[in-house]
């Protein structure tokens, strides 16, 4: 009876074993699923590592460009200083450079804190035991069966490995150049994106400062050129005026002595000059010229020309004057009229105290003409009309 019970138990045990052992197809499927999960994990890990490398290369390139742009900004500041630009013009560049400096420090600190290293094997966790093939029992004996995999156990799946970097990608569509310099294409994290934008801002601000400085320098050069040209023209004009003045002085000097070889009252008409505003009268040429200039000022003051009643007087004329006017005329051969350097004037000038006479007294000396002391109101022989050229 006891042997029968044992036999029944063994039969039940063998029957249970046969019921729970998976088939070969199940075992193969589970093995393939585990292998596929491991492959997918490996691909994910490799992709993450490649992304980290691309992020690092992109950042390193942007940092290098940032250093170059910072150096250009310093040159721009020196250019601004040389061009004497105001602080207001340079302020945007100063602000942009300060921001760039802060971001450069941040980028370098982050790069030092998480350097790219060789990839670690993917952590997959302990592999789930794969079921063995059902043993072929030896005839007449029951072999120990491998521990069965519960029929309802899930296929083993690898534990996902951690990403090589916890950096958050904020941009994948990024420019291929930064501040005009080619950089590797690749994703960017937040710090790199901000750094790139700061680099562009500094580059633009530097270019603007240099543009203004160059414009100012060009304006200064133009102004200096204009000033130099004006100075040269002024010197030329001064030299020309000096030349003309010297020529006139030489001419007047020659005119002053041109009649010395002639006796009083015996100067030929060819040696005298007509007075331009009254050609009926003649004088020594320098006296005539200066009387013309005095007359121009007189016209400005009174609107009419000076009235001339007598000018050069020949010796015969001096005798005639003595006969008709007596002591009012100088002894023949001694009058300045006979030298072509004296005139008698009218039109109001011939009377002391008139506006015309007072004006001439105040202005005639500027042109070399004067009322002799003896002819003044307090003189020995007052003659308001008699004026002489003294050069």
TrEMBL record:
- Show where the D-alanyl-D-alanine carboxypeptidase-like core domain sits: 281-391
Superkingdom as given in the UniProt entry: Bacteria
Region (Disordered), start-end ranges: 112-167
Gene Ontology molecular function terms on file? peptidase activity
Biased composition regions of type Low complexity, renumbered to the chain: 112-127, 135-144, 152-167
Per the UniProt entry, the signal peptide is: 1-18
Q: Which CDD domains match?
A: Peptidase_M15
Q: Which GO terms describe its biological process?
A: proteolysis
Keywords, ordered alphabetically: Signal
Task: List the PANTHER family.
Answer: D-ALANYL-D-ALANINE CARBOXYPEPTIDASE, PEPTIDOGLYCAN L-ALANYL-D-GLUTAMATE ENDOPEPTIDASE CWLK
Query: What is this protein called in UniProt?
Result: D-alanyl-D-alanine carboxypeptidase-like core domain-containing protein
Which species is this UniProt entry from?
Answer: Cellulomonas cellasea DSM 20118
């Amino acid at each position: 009876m006891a042997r029968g019970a044992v036999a029944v138990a063994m039969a039940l045990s063998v029957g249970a074993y046969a019921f729970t052992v998976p088939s070969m197809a199940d075992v193969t499927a589970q093995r393939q699923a585990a292998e596929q999960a491991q492959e997918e994990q490996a691909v994910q890990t490799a992709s993450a590592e490649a992304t980290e490398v691309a992020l690092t290369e992109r950042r390193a390139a942007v940092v290098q460009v940032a250093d170059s742009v910072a150096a250009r900004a310093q040159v721009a500041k020196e250019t601004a200083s040389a061009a004497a630009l105001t602080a207001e013009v340079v302020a945007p560049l100063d602000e942009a450079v300060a921001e760039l400096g802060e971001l450069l420090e941040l980028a370098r600190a982050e790069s030092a804190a998480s350097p790219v290293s060789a990839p670690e094997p993917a952590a997959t966790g302990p592999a789930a035991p794969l079921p063995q093939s059902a043993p072929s029992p030896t005839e007449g004996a029951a072999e120990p069966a491998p521990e069965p995999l519960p029929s309802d156990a899930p296929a083993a799946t690898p534990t996902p490995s951690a990403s090589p970097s916890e950096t958050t990608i904020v941009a994948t569509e990024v420019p291929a150049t930064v501040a005009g310099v080619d950089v590797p294409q690749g994703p960017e994290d937040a710090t790199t994106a901000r750094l790139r934008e700061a680099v562009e801002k500094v580059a633009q601000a530097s270019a603007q400062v240099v543009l203004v400085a160059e414009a100012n320098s060009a304006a200064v050069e133009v102004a200096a050129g204009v000033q130099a040209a004006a100075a040269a023209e002024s010197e030329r004009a001064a030299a020309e005026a000096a030349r003309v003045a010297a020529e006139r002085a030489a001419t007047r000097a020659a005119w002053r002595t041109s009649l010395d070889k002639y006796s009083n009252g015996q100067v030929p008409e060819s040696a005298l000059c007509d007075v331009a505003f009254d050609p009926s009268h003649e004088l020594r040429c320098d006296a005539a010229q200066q009387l013309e200039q005095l007359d121009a000022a007189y016209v400005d003051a009174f609107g009419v020309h000076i009235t001339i009643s007598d000018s050069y007087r020949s010796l015969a004329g001096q005798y005639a004057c003595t006969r008709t006017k007596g002591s009012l005329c100088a002894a023949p051969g001694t009058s300045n009229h006979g030298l072509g350097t004296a005139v008698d004037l009218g039109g109001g000038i011939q009377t002391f105290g008139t506006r015309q006479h007072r004006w001439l007294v105040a202005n005639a000396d500027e042109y070399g003409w004067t009322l002799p002391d003896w002819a003044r109101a307090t003189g020995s022989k007052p003659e308001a009309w008699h004026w002489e050229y003294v050069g």
